[in-house]
Write a sequence for this structure.
């Protein structure tokens, strides 16, 4: 049984087909990369999995049961957490409070405020933001805000983490740190699906990659297979890497 | 250390509240007439403003439905006037407002921003006209009579409801729901994806804030012998708490109370001294305060305090 599985997942916006009948699966413990040109439907697919949007057609199952139709908070409590392409933090709340929202409401079991605060501090430590715990989240740098979103997602104690371009806009060093962070997340036994444009990062850490173009899955395989795929080179990579 | 500080802050706040309550409770023994009447007015607006801030403060959803729930309290008081004891009447009004707000909230809280504000505004007019029509067809009257309660009775009732409102507001702010409401106000989508049942949290808080509005309505209705839909569902009741909250500052609960008190008092003075220029002066005061005190009177006071102490943090 796959951890997450989608069958014929589609989403239209009026006449525009953003995701067209995509089949996909994610297995426990792997890092799956989702790549493709802008507008290929990557973030829409994340929105369908996390229930930010209902699919126009198709079903998504998690741990063997269908989850289509559930509200976002239930998806989160089931163990699917996400970050956002454009950061969506609670800017006026202290950093630690941002993370505490996740540990207080997102875990699926009722935890005390003390316990939630302890988990929040642990996750801040994990993403190396402990020194900024009392600073309003809006005052953090972009790289730190992206880490904060990861910490908030991790605080919900997910089994599956959806990372939407957490490396976009980061410096070379920050990308290295983000790669290290993802490796450490995997080491905790958390399954990761990541959307990314930073090619060397995605090729370096993903076990498997799905390539989308105009809402359609055009390739799937190991990084080496995908990098050698003619169609992928044509529509996305541009040249062999 | 931090925990000790917190419990000390808590007991200081609680102590201050009890002292304030005692002073206000004993007041009618020493004074009468105008001051008590003025305090009833101030406490009424303090209840409405704090109740409004409970929901609209952290979430940023601007509700203009206050008059609907307040007016509902008026009508509960009128319909059951003389048949049930005053305390029960007040509770009945609170319960009705809660139920109506649950329904309204479930329908409207999917709307965001200005749409929500407009809908709640329209709700007041809708309820007003429905009551007007029902009365015309069913009872073939326009208004109703309400059995009066002594000034002291009204004073103590609104005082108790005021402290209940403050207590509820404090409990909500400090509980997990306080954090949930804040995160909804900051970024609703992120709150939903972090495990918060945003719809339920909003609807429940909206309904809780309506309880106190309804109770205030039932109490104040007894100050008038006659009510009709235009008196009960007056749009000023929706707008004034918003202005008072802005005027006082919404950073904590002292702000709205201060705003309600000052606003009511200034309004009273202007109305008695300059009845012709009342609205004009009031308007100017409002514009100036919104322009120059973005965090309200309290924010301004804290800023001055900070400057006097030379850059330290003002107590919040």
């Amino acid at each position: 049984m796959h951890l997450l599985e989608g069958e014929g997942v589609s989403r239209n916006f009026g006449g525009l087909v953003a995701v067209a009948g995509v089949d996909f699966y994610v297995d426990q413990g792997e890092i799956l990369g989702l790549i493709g040109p802008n507008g290929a439907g990557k973030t829409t697919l994340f929105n369908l999995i996390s229930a930010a949007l209902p699919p126009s057609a198709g079903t998504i199952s998690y741990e063997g049961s269908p989850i289509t139709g559930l509200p976002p908070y239930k998806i989160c409590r089931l163990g699917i957490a996400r970050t956002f392409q454009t950061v969506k933090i609670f800017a006026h709340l202290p950093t630690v409070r941002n993370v505490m929202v996740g540990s207080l409401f997102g875990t699926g079991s009722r935890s005390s405020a003390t316990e939630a605060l302890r988990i929040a501090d642990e996750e801040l430590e994990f993403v190396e933001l402990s020194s900024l715990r009392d600073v309003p989240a809006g005052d953090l740098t972009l790289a730190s805000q992206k880490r904060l979103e990861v910490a908030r997602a991790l605080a919900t104690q997910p089994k599956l983490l959806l990372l939407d371009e957490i490396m976009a806009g980061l410096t070379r060093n920050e990308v290295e740190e983000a790669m290290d962070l993802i490796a450490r997340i995997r080491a905790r036994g958390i399954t990761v699906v990541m959307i990314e444009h930073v090619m060397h990062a995605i090729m370096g850490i993903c076990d498997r990659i799905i390539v989308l173009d105009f809402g359609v899955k055009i390739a799937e395989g190991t990084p080496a297979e995908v990098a050698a795929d003619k169609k992928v080179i044509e529509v996305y990579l541009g040249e062999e890497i | 250390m931090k925990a000790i500080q917190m419990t000390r802050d808590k007991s200081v706040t609680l102590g201050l509240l009890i002292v304030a309550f005692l002073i206000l409770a004993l007041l009618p023994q020493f004074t009468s007439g105008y001051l008590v009447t003025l305090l009833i007015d101030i406490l009424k607006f303090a209840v409405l403003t704090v109740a409004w801030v409970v929901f609209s403060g952290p979430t940023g959803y601007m509700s203009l439905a206050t008059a609907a729930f307040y007016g509902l309290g008026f009508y509960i008081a009128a319909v059951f006037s003389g048949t049930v004891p005053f305390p029960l009447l007040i509770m009945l009004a609170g319960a009705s407002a809660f139920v109506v707000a649950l329904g309204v909230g479930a329908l409207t809280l999917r709307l965001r921003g200005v749409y929500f504000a407009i809908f709640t505004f329209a709700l007041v007019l809708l309820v007003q006209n429905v009551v007007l029509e029902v009365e015309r067809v069913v009872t073939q009257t326009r208004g109703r009579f309400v059995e009066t309660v002594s000034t002291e009775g009204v004073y103590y009732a609104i005082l108790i409801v005021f402290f209940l409102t403050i207590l509820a507001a404090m409990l909500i702010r400090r509980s997990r729901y306080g954090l949930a409401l804040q995160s909804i106000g900051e970024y609703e989508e992120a709150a939903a994806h972090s495990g918060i049942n945003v719809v339920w949290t909003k609807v429940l808080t909206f309904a809780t804030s309506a309880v106190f509005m309804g109770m205030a309505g039932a109490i104040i209705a007894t100050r008038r012998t006659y009510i009709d839909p235009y008196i009960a569902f007056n749009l000023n009741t929706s707008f004034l708490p918003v202005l008072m909250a802005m005027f006082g500052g919404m950073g904590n609960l002292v702000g709205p109370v201060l705003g309600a008190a000052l606003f009511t008092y200034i309004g009273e003075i202007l109305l008695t001294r300059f009845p012709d220029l009342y609205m004009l002066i009031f308007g100017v005061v409002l514009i100036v305060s919104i322009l120059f005190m973005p965090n309200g009177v309290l924010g301004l006071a804290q800023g001055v305090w900070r400057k006097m102490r030379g850059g330290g943090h003002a107590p919040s």
